[in-house]
Amino acid sequence: MLSQFTTQSVALRKAASPALPRAISAVRAPAHVAVVLDATAAEAGDTQVEELIQGCLETGVAWLSLCPGGTLPQRAVTIQRLNTFAAAHRKTLLDHGVIVGGIEGPLNIHIVKQTGREELVSAVRSLAEKGIQANALTEPLLREHLPTAHLPAVDLLVHLGGEKSIGAFLTWQNAYAELLFIDVPWKRFTPAHFDFALNDYAQRKRTYGGLK
Fold it and tell me: What average pLDDT does the segment 161-184 reach?
Protein backbone atom coordinates (compact mmCIF):
# COMPACT_ATOMS: atom_id res chain seq x y z
CA MET A 1 0.00 0.00 0.00
CA LEU A 2 1.03 3.59 -0.46
CA SER A 3 1.43 4.17 3.28
CA GLN A 4 3.90 1.30 3.48
CA PHE A 5 5.65 2.44 0.36
CA THR A 6 6.28 6.02 1.47
CA THR A 7 9.52 5.45 3.36
CA GLN A 8 10.67 2.72 1.00
CA SER A 9 10.28 4.94 -2.04
CA VAL A 10 12.66 7.62 -0.78
CA ALA A 11 15.47 5.11 -0.32
CA LEU A 12 14.69 3.43 -3.62
CA ARG A 13 14.62 6.71 -5.53
CA LYS A 14 17.93 7.81 -3.99
CA ALA A 15 19.57 4.50 -4.83
CA ALA A 16 18.14 4.46 -8.35
CA SER A 17 19.11 8.02 -9.27
CA PRO A 18 21.63 9.44 -6.76
CA ALA A 19 22.88 12.10 -9.19
CA LEU A 20 19.46 13.69 -9.63
CA PRO A 21 18.05 16.34 -7.26
CA ARG A 22 15.63 15.00 -4.65
CA ALA A 23 13.13 17.79 -5.07
CA ILE A 24 12.26 19.87 -8.09
CA SER A 25 11.13 23.43 -7.53
CA ALA A 26 7.36 23.78 -7.76
CA VAL A 27 8.00 26.50 -10.34
CA ARG A 28 9.86 24.04 -12.57
CA ALA A 29 7.82 20.92 -11.93
CA PRO A 30 5.02 20.17 -14.42
CA ALA A 31 1.59 20.76 -12.90
CA HIS A 32 -0.05 18.10 -15.08
CA VAL A 33 1.74 14.92 -16.13
CA ALA A 34 0.08 12.45 -18.48
CA VAL A 35 1.56 8.99 -18.84
CA VAL A 36 0.61 6.76 -21.76
CA LEU A 37 0.94 3.21 -20.51
CA ASP A 38 1.85 0.42 -22.93
CA ALA A 39 0.14 -2.96 -23.16
CA THR A 40 2.13 -4.42 -20.24
CA ALA A 41 -0.02 -2.35 -17.87
CA ALA A 42 -2.73 -4.97 -18.35
CA GLU A 43 -0.57 -7.51 -16.53
CA ALA A 44 1.38 -5.28 -14.12
CA GLY A 45 0.85 -5.09 -10.39
CA ASP A 46 0.39 -2.08 -8.12
CA THR A 47 4.07 -1.24 -7.59
CA GLN A 48 4.45 1.11 -10.55
CA VAL A 49 1.27 3.01 -9.67
CA GLU A 50 2.36 3.43 -6.05
CA GLU A 51 5.82 4.61 -7.07
CA LEU A 52 4.44 7.07 -9.59
CA ILE A 53 1.97 8.52 -7.09
CA GLN A 54 4.71 8.86 -4.50
CA GLY A 55 6.96 10.57 -7.04
CA CYS A 56 4.22 13.09 -7.82
CA LEU A 57 3.66 13.81 -4.14
CA GLU A 58 7.38 14.31 -3.53
CA THR A 59 7.87 16.71 -6.42
CA GLY A 60 4.67 18.77 -6.37
CA VAL A 61 2.89 17.42 -9.44
CA ALA A 62 -0.78 18.33 -8.96
CA TRP A 63 -2.41 16.37 -11.77
CA LEU A 64 -1.64 12.86 -13.02
CA SER A 65 -3.48 11.36 -15.98
CA LEU A 66 -3.02 7.66 -16.67
CA CYS A 67 -3.76 6.72 -20.28
CA PRO A 68 -4.06 2.97 -20.91
CA GLY A 69 -2.57 1.82 -24.20
CA GLY A 70 -2.57 -1.42 -26.16
CA THR A 71 -5.51 -3.11 -27.82
CA LEU A 72 -9.08 -2.40 -26.77
CA PRO A 73 -9.23 -5.55 -24.59
CA GLN A 74 -5.89 -4.65 -22.99
CA ARG A 75 -7.06 -1.10 -22.35
CA ALA A 76 -10.20 -2.42 -20.69
CA VAL A 77 -8.16 -4.68 -18.39
CA THR A 78 -5.80 -1.82 -17.50
CA ILE A 79 -8.70 0.52 -16.69
CA GLN A 80 -10.24 -2.17 -14.49
CA ARG A 81 -6.92 -2.73 -12.69
CA LEU A 82 -6.47 0.99 -12.06
CA ASN A 83 -10.04 1.39 -10.82
CA THR A 84 -9.60 -1.63 -8.53
CA PHE A 85 -6.41 -0.11 -7.13
CA ALA A 86 -8.13 3.22 -6.54
CA ALA A 87 -11.08 1.59 -4.79
CA ALA A 88 -8.93 -0.72 -2.64
CA HIS A 89 -6.66 2.09 -1.46
CA ARG A 90 -9.16 4.94 -1.37
CA LYS A 91 -8.68 5.79 2.32
CA THR A 92 -4.88 5.59 2.13
CA LEU A 93 -4.85 7.76 -0.97
CA LEU A 94 -7.12 10.34 0.67
CA ASP A 95 -4.91 10.35 3.76
CA HIS A 96 -2.03 11.32 1.47
CA GLY A 97 -4.04 14.03 -0.28
CA VAL A 98 -4.61 11.96 -3.42
CA ILE A 99 -8.03 12.19 -5.05
CA VAL A 100 -8.91 9.89 -7.94
CA GLY A 101 -11.34 11.63 -10.28
CA GLY A 102 -11.27 14.81 -8.23
CA ILE A 103 -10.16 18.37 -8.90
CA GLU A 104 -9.32 19.86 -5.50
CA GLY A 105 -6.68 17.59 -3.98
CA PRO A 106 -2.94 18.24 -3.68
CA LEU A 107 -2.70 15.42 -6.24
CA ASN A 108 -5.61 14.64 -8.56
CA ILE A 109 -5.49 11.44 -10.57
CA HIS A 110 -7.53 10.87 -13.72
CA ILE A 111 -7.89 7.45 -15.33
CA VAL A 112 -8.52 8.15 -18.99
CA LYS A 113 -11.26 5.96 -20.40
CA GLN A 114 -11.98 7.58 -23.78
CA THR A 115 -9.73 8.47 -26.69
CA GLY A 116 -9.42 12.09 -27.73
CA ARG A 117 -11.51 11.47 -30.82
CA GLU A 118 -14.27 9.84 -28.77
CA GLU A 119 -14.25 12.84 -26.47
CA LEU A 120 -14.61 15.28 -29.37
CA VAL A 121 -17.48 13.27 -30.84
CA SER A 122 -19.17 13.24 -27.42
CA ALA A 123 -18.78 17.01 -27.12
CA VAL A 124 -20.19 17.67 -30.59
CA ARG A 125 -23.17 15.39 -29.91
CA SER A 126 -23.86 17.20 -26.66
CA LEU A 127 -23.77 20.56 -28.40
CA ALA A 128 -26.06 19.30 -31.16
CA GLU A 129 -28.55 17.95 -28.64
CA LYS A 130 -28.69 21.40 -27.06
CA GLY A 131 -29.39 22.98 -30.42
CA ILE A 132 -26.15 24.97 -30.56
CA GLN A 133 -25.75 26.37 -34.07
CA ALA A 134 -22.45 26.23 -35.92
CA ASN A 135 -22.01 30.01 -35.94
CA ALA A 136 -22.39 30.05 -32.15
CA LEU A 137 -19.69 27.45 -31.57
CA THR A 138 -16.55 28.73 -29.86
CA GLU A 139 -13.40 27.10 -28.56
CA PRO A 140 -14.33 27.61 -24.88
CA LEU A 141 -17.84 26.25 -25.51
CA LEU A 142 -16.49 23.10 -27.15
CA ARG A 143 -14.05 22.55 -24.33
CA GLU A 144 -16.84 22.88 -21.74
CA HIS A 145 -18.59 19.91 -23.30
CA LEU A 146 -15.60 17.58 -23.32
CA PRO A 147 -15.84 14.70 -20.82
CA THR A 148 -12.43 15.83 -19.52
CA ALA A 149 -13.28 19.55 -19.40
CA HIS A 150 -12.20 19.60 -15.75
CA LEU A 151 -8.62 18.69 -16.63
CA PRO A 152 -6.03 21.44 -17.17
CA ALA A 153 -3.64 21.44 -20.10
CA VAL A 154 -0.99 18.73 -19.96
CA ASP A 155 2.49 20.06 -19.27
CA LEU A 156 4.44 16.84 -19.77
CA LEU A 157 3.34 13.80 -21.75
CA VAL A 158 5.41 10.67 -21.15
CA HIS A 159 4.83 7.84 -23.62
CA LEU A 160 6.18 4.46 -22.57
CA GLY A 161 6.89 1.27 -24.47
CA GLY A 162 8.97 2.62 -27.33
CA GLU A 163 6.17 4.18 -29.41
CA LYS A 164 6.96 7.74 -30.47
CA SER A 165 3.58 9.43 -30.77
CA ILE A 166 1.31 11.49 -28.56
CA GLY A 167 -1.09 8.57 -28.42
CA ALA A 168 -4.86 8.65 -28.77
CA PHE A 169 -5.68 10.37 -25.49
CA LEU A 170 -6.37 13.88 -24.17
CA THR A 171 -6.15 15.40 -27.64
CA TRP A 172 -7.35 18.79 -26.41
CA GLN A 173 -5.15 18.97 -23.31
CA ASN A 174 -2.04 17.76 -25.14
CA ALA A 175 -2.02 20.59 -27.68
CA TYR A 176 1.10 22.25 -26.24
CA ALA A 177 2.43 19.50 -24.00
CA GLU A 178 6.13 18.78 -23.82
CA LEU A 179 6.74 15.24 -25.10
CA LEU A 180 9.07 12.57 -23.78
CA PHE A 181 9.33 9.05 -25.15
CA ILE A 182 10.86 6.39 -22.90
CA ASP A 183 11.63 3.02 -24.40
CA VAL A 184 10.68 0.99 -21.36
CA PRO A 185 7.46 -0.90 -20.66
CA TRP A 186 5.18 0.16 -17.83
CA LYS A 187 5.87 -2.99 -15.80
CA ARG A 188 9.56 -1.96 -15.69
CA PHE A 189 8.96 1.74 -15.08
CA THR A 190 10.93 2.86 -12.01
CA PRO A 191 11.31 5.98 -9.85
CA ALA A 192 14.56 6.68 -11.75
CA HIS A 193 12.61 6.94 -15.01
CA PHE A 194 10.16 9.40 -13.45
CA ASP A 195 13.01 11.46 -12.00
CA PHE A 196 14.60 11.55 -15.44
CA ALA A 197 11.35 12.74 -17.01
CA LEU A 198 10.88 15.57 -14.51
CA ASN A 199 14.46 16.74 -14.73
CA ASP A 200 14.37 16.65 -18.53
CA TYR A 201 11.21 18.78 -18.42
CA ALA A 202 12.77 21.23 -15.95
CA GLN A 203 15.62 21.92 -18.38
CA ARG A 204 13.33 22.79 -21.30
CA LYS A 205 12.21 26.25 -22.36
CA ARG A 206 8.54 26.00 -23.23
CA THR A 207 7.20 28.02 -26.16
CA TYR A 208 3.62 26.69 -26.25
CA GLY A 209 3.67 26.34 -30.01
CA GLY A 210 5.11 29.82 -30.45
CA LEU A 211 2.40 31.51 -28.38
CA LYS A 212 4.94 32.48 -25.72
Answer: 93
